[in-house]
Amino acid sequence: MSEIETQQPKKRKDTLYLLIILLLLSGLVAITIMYRMQGDKLNVCNIENKEKEKMMDDMNESFKQYGVMMSDDIRDNLEGMLSQYDAVNVENAEMQDSINAQKDRIKELMVELEDSKKDKKRFIWKIRQLQEETETLRSIMKGYLVTIDSLNTLNVELRDNLDKTQNNLNKMTEDRDLYKETSDKYKNQVQKGSVLSAYGFSTIGLGYNDKENKRAKKVAKVKSCFTIGENTIAQAGKKNIYIRVISPAGKVLTKRNTNTINTNSGTIVYSDSRSIDYQNQAIDVCILADVRELELDKGNYIVEIYADGARIGKDSFALK
Questions:
Q1: pLDDT digits (tens, 9 = 90+) for 151-197
Q2: Selection from 176, 199, 217, 71 nearest residue 131 by Cα
Q3: Sheet containing 198-207: which strands, arranged edge to edge?
Q4: What is the pLDDT of residue 90?
Q5: pLDDT digits (tens, 9 = 90+) for 51-64
Q6: For residue 69, which of 127, 130, 138, 129 has the smallest C-alpha distance?
Q7: What is the pLDDT of residues 227-238, one digit of tens each?
Q8: Which end of the chain is more exposed for a tag (fewer CB within 10 A), N or C?
Q9: Which residues contact 38 (CB under 8 A, 6 or more apart)?
Q10: For residues 286 and 224, is the Cβ–Cβ distance under 8 A?
Q11: Partners of residue 278 on adjacent β-strands
């Protein structure tokens, strides 16, 4: 083999080695460049992560502060509602029970609010829950206050109407009392005016032969004649006329203890009676008292005439 033929394969090998070395160098450069690029990206990512972490920390801190502010607002709202309920005064027992139940729930929420601060993980969530329930309670309270205001307005109107009614009733009572007083006055006047009046008396003793006799031991009857005067306001119709014969000793002569009548002065005993028909005109009347079997004494006797419970006349006579 010639020297030229020997050198040609050697050159080819050197060229191939050179190409391989160049390729390896190119790859190493490329890898170095890529590594540097990845390192730069990693640094950028680390910086961005730190910035995001800081941002998250700031947001968490702000959120916590916001939660604290919310908790203060909720506590103020709860305390305000409790004060408003305490100031409410209702007479309706059922509504008062409902208000008391709402006040108890508000107090429970205030306790839950304080307890939630001990658990930081649940604090924000609990704050939101309490805020929602507080708003619900506030809506309920507004409804109660509107109802109570309406009831108070109605009560004021009812009191005004009651006062007016009471005033009217008092006025009616005064008018009634005045009318009764006037009526009683007129009634008394009518009663006084309607009392009959007897006059023109003639009273004598009669013996057993129905003739006048002035001897006490011989008298069997006492006869009294008189006139009952005209009275247009007296009640007309049948009237009982009663005679009382009173002895000198002051005893009413009567044959029956049951002979009693009611008068303006009380219950009294009468001697005898008769019935007449009175028509508001003057009428002459004679009435007899049977005194037989009664012991009559000498002296002056008094005769009283009664009608409609009143004494309408009086006379006297003497026996020997």
A1: 667 666 777 777 777 777 777 777 777 767 766 665 655 566 678 88
A2: 71
A3: 198-207, 219-228, 283-290
A4: 64
A5: 655 654 554 454 44
A6: 127
A7: 998 988 888 899
A8: N
A9: none
A10: yes
A11: 237
Residue 67 has pLDDT above 50, yes or no: no
The two three-digit tokens of residue 125, written as one number = 């969530």
> How far, in Å, are 69, 70, 115, 133 from residue 129 at the CA level?
15, 11, 13, 6
- Of 79 and 233, more confident: 233
CB-based contact 264:310 (threshold 8 Å): yes
Q: Calculate ∠ Cα 51-54-60, nearest 5°.
A: 140
CA distance linking residue 28 with residue 280, whole number of Å = 160
Could you tell me which of 70, 71, 107 has the C-alpha nearest to residue 86?
A: 107
Exposure string for 269-283, b = 16+ CB within 10 A, e = fewer: bbbbbeebebeeeeb
